[in-house]
């Protein structure tokens, strides 16, 4: 009956958390600037009786909300940063709220709010049953910058967790049995000597030449890296004017690989290429690592637990109005994108809003594209993760269609569903009659193979203050 009571409380309070998610959607802020969402969530959690610790890892918007004093300690991860340029009305026609403004095209308005909903519901149940244990909500900034949780992890705030749970909005309900790639973001700053490009080009030493030669070298490197590695770059400073030999130029790289060791090796090789470019151009170079997240380590025990909760609470249903909106929105998706999404979908390819839940294990632990700083947490403590249907099949993350979906009632339904899966799973872990935690920890020990987590961001690198100088798309 206790789980039924927990679900009943959550059903009765859905409107309250829908309003929270809607407010965050209406006030989008990019990474390290999420003051509205962070302050709103802290206020709600403080009023609910949680102890708040803020400014975690030197990040003003990072915080931890805690209830309880005993073991086990269960963490629920939340995010709340938006993406630049993805402002959009809840409409099937491209119509920004603010031209070129930020928008929640990755659904973090939902992601964090579901965590808040789950821990408050859990606290109510723990008080009613006088259950021992501790629950924590982690307000994690700047996931889109792949560094917020890394800075938090660097100060040890996840170290005493028995396990953690999280989720992400998507177009299917599924256990996240895959691994995302490790990543290092590194920017190279070349220095040369300026001169008149027409009158005295021989006196100049072009920093831009060094950048371009480095990029050529990096492109040749692609042939000699492990399968699945990715090398992306952007020239962040190309000089002042064509008739001035650039004395300063810079280029920003994202390096991805199957695991942290692969990315570290790739970084070392890229640094050598940068140094080689300086020899060819008589310039100099410095570099700065801006983020360095781990590959995600799925935990089958915890993912199975979350799947079991999905089986117990049944499927989501949708109104005719929601289905109509989903059809109209999907009609704006390029046919080739939709075809690819259908091919990758775990369910039937004709399901617009798939209510089923999938726990596919045939490729358990296989690396997929993309990266997340959730990976850092997964190498510190066992991590359970699911995705839920918050948008119609075919809608891609980081698009205006996603922003529209994640502000709609479709997104809200997926959020409440995820909150229930996390709350029910955490409740099972608190009572832990079947030794689930010990099994999850044993699996974690086996999968980490004795490796100790070491932050991928050097100790001297501090969280960025000016977002405009730091942002890159994930």
Could you walk me through the main structural features you see in this protein, from its secondary elements to its overall organization?
This protein is an alpha/beta fold. It has 2 domains: 2-180 and 295-448, Zn peptidases (Aminopeptidase); 182-291, Alpha-Beta Plaits (2-Layer Sandwich), CATH 3.30.70. It contains 14 helices and 14 strands. It has helices spanning 2-12, 14-26, 35-47, 108-129, 148-154, 207-221, 260-281, 300-313, 320-330, 335-344, 374-378, 400-406, 409-431, 436-448, and strands at residues 51-54, 63-67, 73-79, 134-140, 163-170, 173-175, 179-180, 182-191, 230-237, 248-257, 284-293, 357-358, 367-368, 383-389. The chain has an 8-stranded mixed sheet with strand order 1-2-4-3-5-14-6-12, with helices on both faces. α1 runs antiparallel to α13, α3 packs parallel to α4 and α4 (108-129) runs parallel beside α13.
Search tags:
474 residues, alpha/beta, Aminopeptidase, Alpha-Beta Plaits, 2 domains, eight-stranded mixed sheet, 14 helices
Percent range for helical residues? 25-40%
CATH superfamily grouping of the largest domain: Zn peptidases
The CATH class of the largest domain turns out to be: Alpha Beta
> Based on the structure given, which CATH architecture of the largest domain is correct?
3-Layer(aba) Sandwich
Which strands sit side by side, in order, in the main sheet? Answer: 1-2-4-3-5-14-6-12
What would you call the quaternary organization? single chain
Mean pLDDT: 95
SS-derived structural category: alpha/beta
Q: What's the CATH topology label of the largest domain?
A: Aminopeptidase
Instruction: Provide the domain count.
Output: 2
Cα(first) to Cα(last) distance is: 43 Å
SSE series: HHHEEEHEHEEEEHEEHEHHHEEHEHHH
E-strand count: 14
Number of helices: 14
Let me know the largest β-sheet.
8 strands, mixed
């Amino acid at each position: 009956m206790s789980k039924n009571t927990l679900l009943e409380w959550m059903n009765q309070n859905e409107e309250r958390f829908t309003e929270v998610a809607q407010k965050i959607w209406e006030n989008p802020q990019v990474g390290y600037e999420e003051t509205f969402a962070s302050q709103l969530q802290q206020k709600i959690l403080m009023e609910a009786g949680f102890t708040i610790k803020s400014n975690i890892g030197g990040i003003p918007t990072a915080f931890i909300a805690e209830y309880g004093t005993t073991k086990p300690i269960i963490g629920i991860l939340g995010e709340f940063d938006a993406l630049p340029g993805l402002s959009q009305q809840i409409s099937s026609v491209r119509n920004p709220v603010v031209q070129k403004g930020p928008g929640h095209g990755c659904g973090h308005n939902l992601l964090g709010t579901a965590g808040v909903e789950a821990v408050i519901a859990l606290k109510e149940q723990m008080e009613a049953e006088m259950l021992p244990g501790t629950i924590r909500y982690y307000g994690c900034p700047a996931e889109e910058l792949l560094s917020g949780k890394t800075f938090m992890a660097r100060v040890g705030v996840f170290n005493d967790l028995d396990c953690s749970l999280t989720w992400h909005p998507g177009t299917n309900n599924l256990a996240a049995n895959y691994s995302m790639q490790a990543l290092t973001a590194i920017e190279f700053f070349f220095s040369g000597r300026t001169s008149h490009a027409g009158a005295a080009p021989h006196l100049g030493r072009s920093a831009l030449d060094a950048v371009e030669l480095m990029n050529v070298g990096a492109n040749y490197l692609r042939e000699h890296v492990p399968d699945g590695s990715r090398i992306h770059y952007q020239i962040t400073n190309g000089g002042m004017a064509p008739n001035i030999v650039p004395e300063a130029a810079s280029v920003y790289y994202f390096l991805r690989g199957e695991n942290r060791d692969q990315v570290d090796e790739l970084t070392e090789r890229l640094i050598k290429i940068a140094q080689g470019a300086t020899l060819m151009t008589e310039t100099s170079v410095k570099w700065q690592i801006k983020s360095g997240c781990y590959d995600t380590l799925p935990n089958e025990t915890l993912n199975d637990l979350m799947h079991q909760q999905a089986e117990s609470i049944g499927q989501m249903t949708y109104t005719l109005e929601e289905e109509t909106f989903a059809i109209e929105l999907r009609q704006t998706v390029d046919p080739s994108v939709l075809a690819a999404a259908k091919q990758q979908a775990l369910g039937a390819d004709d399901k617009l809003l798939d209510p089923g839940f999938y726990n596919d294990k045939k490729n358990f632990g296989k690396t997929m594209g993309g990266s997340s700083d959730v990976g850092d947490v997964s190498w510190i403590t066992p991590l359970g993760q699911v995705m839920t249907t918050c948008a119609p099949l075919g809608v891609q993350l980081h698009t205006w269609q996603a922003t529209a979906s994640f502000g709609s009632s479709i997104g809200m339904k997926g959020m409440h569903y995820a909150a229930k899966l996390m709350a029910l799973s955490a409740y099972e872990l608190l009572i832990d009659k079947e030794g689930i935690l010990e099994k999850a920890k044993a699996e974690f020990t086996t999968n980490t193979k004795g490796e100790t987590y070491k932050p991928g961001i050097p100790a001297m690198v501090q969280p960025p203050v000016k977002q405009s100088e730091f942002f890159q798309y994930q």
